[in-house]
Fold:
Amino acid sequence: MSDELFEYETKEEVTREEAAATLRELADTIARHNEVSFTANNKVVRIDIPDRVRLKVEMERGQADGKSELEVKLSWRE
Structure:
């Protein structure tokens, strides 16, 4: 693995169904291939997902600005 830090973030407004499809595709990729790949700046970065990960699900409803949030996070040590 490279010591170079790689960060990837995307934000877009989509339908609920499109968001669910993206989550399903990501989950299926992790389950079938034990990795995910991202392309940024014409560079493909592959991230291997180990057998055991920490799963965090966080929900916030009715914040002061009226915004609600659902966050799903996988983390692990290499």
Remarks:
- The longest helix spans residues 16-33.
- Strands lie at 35-40, 43-48, 54-60, 69-75.
- Residues 7 and 40 are 9 Å apart (CA to CA).
- The chain has one domain: 16-75.
